[in-house]
Specification:
616 residues; alpha+beta; 4-stranded mixed sheet; 23 strands; 23% helix; 20% strand
Length: 616
């Protein structure tokens, strides 16, 4: 039992009250049994003896209670573990569901992980580095959680600091020199279109687009963290959304209420991030509570990634009710892809190109030292090397190997028992909850406190030179302070980007990022999704006070229509699907591949069923 440090401690006050009560009770028992109410009748030695016996009984009961609480805590921990194990057995790490926004006469009309778009992706191209993404339910290594509306900033783990969640901005690609060398705006526009055409066709002989269209891998990361219950923590930046609660308990109460009665926060700033027990504190036998949290980050890929590596995932539940052909579905926001450079017809073992890219992404340490794991007497080695090269577990990894074959005769191992998607990285951050473990073998014991995080890739995003191109030399206001730069900034509070010197935006900033000449595109249509925020044909003052008509310069899912080129996809969602790990989905996908020619032609009008009745 923890010792009392001061009487103000509630535990100490309670213990003192019990002692006083026992003393008075013993004295009163002696007085009443003797019939003499005077103090002389009190036998001090007898009272002390009875008090000792009472305290011994109380101590035994306290010990028993502590053991019971410890056992119940342990059982609660194991119940949580079994729930996670069940989820792991039912599917892989990945996306489960987005918020329902439509129903229909068939269950495949209903929203799944696809609604108006895959994983609720949308455009905030009027901001400098925000990728639109709504709420979703996800699973990482058996932990199920629901996010807030994400709208994440595309930033990367810091390359200069190990500080908790420190990050750097990702550099934007340079404008092609052949564009800058053109003397007129019209010629610059024509030359820039040629680079987009080359990127669309993946034709480096037409224009070498590769230095100017840089791929970035966006990923979903989660970990159990040690967090004060009275303080909520935002784990990643968004210029548009924040967790709306005063504490983790407050957040749990809000999400519990809305889930129970079926309402929602209109701003979509609630999240279901579970709290759990990870162990028992050996110093005071109290449960150690941990808080699940997640973030979405980016990582610049240092090689060119041909868009042909993005293999389209054909969802009949999307195409059939909409009447889409395969090509129409590929170009729609409901499309999602898998990163697959080989598309092999049979099984594979070992690292893929995606694994090699992710192997360069650090875990929570940002700049990790060499972290290893030999708790079971076997170090983990790099699967991609012929020799035994220690695997630095501070970076995300999917495969590893041992120095000798295991019981099944193989030495190459995939992370997890049955998860095709999860990547793991170790770290030394005190804010990450440690998993304490002691392993004894051959009269030797080894104890560790291991801290880990998990991740899955969610998007490949191509940064384009439009993010850097500024042919009108429009002033860019630095900083991201929301108070300093409100949505309608400049000298007058009523500036809204319309065609008047007093109404046009006076330069741009991170929330009103308009620099691309409108002439670069054909007439820009309205937003495709209610969640999109960019305006078309916004008027901005250049540094000489001239009014310029501009379009958004930020991250597009697909660009507006470019004359002679068309619309160009820049975001390729590759988030894995949890349900794809189940035997039912595997069988269904095998069926679809077997009858691919028929599946490709499926539309509402093309589907008929023929049934023959046979009598015996």
């Amino acid at each position: 039992m923890a010792s009392c440090k001061r009487l103000a401690d509630p535990r100490c006050a309670c213990a003192a009250s019990v002692v006083v009560f026992l003393v008075l009770a013993c004295c009163w028992d002696i007085v009443t049994s003797s019939g003499d109410p005077s103090l002389d009748a009190i036998n001090i030695e007898s009272a002390v003896q009875q008090l000792k016996q009472a305290l011994q009984g109380l101590e035994k009961q306290t010990t028993r209670n502590k053991l019971v609480v410890k056992d119940l805590t342990r059982q609660t921990l194991m119940n949580r573990f079994q729930a996670e194990e069940r989820i792991r057995s039912e599917g892989d790490s990945g996306i489960v569901q987005v918020r329902y926004d439509k129903l229909g006469s068939r269950n495949y009309h209903h929203t799944t992980f696809i609604g108006n778009s895959f994983v609720a992706v949308h455009d905030h191209s009027d901001t400098i580095d925000t990728c639109g993404m709504g709420e979703f339910i996800g699973i990482l290594n058996g932990v199920e959680f629901r996010t807030r509306h994400n709208d994440y900033r595309l930033v990367m783990p810091s390359r200069s600091s190990k500080a908790w969640h420190a990050y750097d901005e990702i550099p934007t690609p340079p404008v092609p020199q052949s564009v800058l060398d053109k003397p007129t705006l019209e010629e610059q526009i024509l030359e820039m279109r040629e680079y987009f055409k080359a990127f669309r066709d993946q034709n480096i002989t037409h224009r070498d687009y590769r230095p100017h269209f840089k791929p970035v891998l966006a990923y979903l990361e989660g970990a159990w963290t040690v967090s004060a219950p009275d303080k909520i923590e935002e784990s990643f930046d968004s210029d548009r959304h924040r967790l709306d609660a005063n504490s983790w308990f407050d957040m749990q109460e809000r999400i519990r209420y809305t889930s129970t009665v079926g309402t929602k926060d209109p701003d979509e700033n609630f999240a279901n991030l579970p709290t759990s027990i990870i162990g028992i504190n050996p110093d005071n036998d109290e449960p150690i509570y941990v808080q699940w949290n997640y973030r979405i980050m980016g990582w610049p890929i240092d090689i060119d990634i041909p868009t042909k590596y993005m293999k389209f995932e054909d969802d009949l539940m999307v195409r059939l009710p909409r009447g889409y052909s395969v090509e129409e579905a590929k170009s729609h926001r409901t499309a999602h892809f898998r990163f697959d450079e080989k598309d092999t017809p049979s099984y594979t073992v070992g690292e893929t190109l995606l694994d090699k890219i992710i192997a360069k992404i650090p875990g929570k340490d940002n700049i990790p030292d060499l972290l290893t794991d030999d708790i079971f007497g076997n170090n983990l080695y790099h699967e991609g090397f012929d020799n035994l090269t220690l695997l630095n577990l501070g970076y995300y990894n999917h495969w590893f190997k041992h120095n000798r074959p295991g019981a099944m005769g193989t030495s190459v191992v995939l992370r997890g028992f049955s998860d095709a998607n999860t990547y793991v990285a170790y770290n030394t951050q005190p804010r990450v909850a440690p998993l304490s473990f002691t392993y004894c073998a051959k009269r030797m014991c080894n104890s560790v406190d291991t801290r880990v995080s998990w991740m899955v890739p969610i998007e490949v995003i191509y940064l384009s030179p439009l993010m850097t191109w500024n042919p009108y030399n429009i002033y860019m206001q630095e900083g991201r302070n929301h108070k300093e730069f409100p949505s309608k900034y400049a000298e007058h509070p009523n500036r809204d980007g319309s065609n008047h010197p007093d109404k046009a935006f006076n330069g741009t900033n991170f929330r009103n990022f308009y620099r691309v000449p409108s002439e670069f595109y054909e007439k820009v249509q309205g937003n495709e999704d209610p969640a999109d925020t960019a305006k078309s044909g916004v008027y901005v003052l250049d540094q000489q006070g001239n009014i310029r008509r501009c379009e958004a310069s930020g991250l597009y899912l697909k660009t507006p229509n470019i004359p002679g080129v068309g619309r160009v996809r820049l975001r390729y969602p590759i988030a894995p699907i949890h349900q794809y790990g189940s035997p039912v989905w595997k069988e269904l996908n095998a069926f679809k591949d077997t009858f691919q020619a028929y599946v490709n032609s499926v539309t509402v009008e093309a589907v008929t069923f023929e049934v023959n009745l046979t009598h015996f």
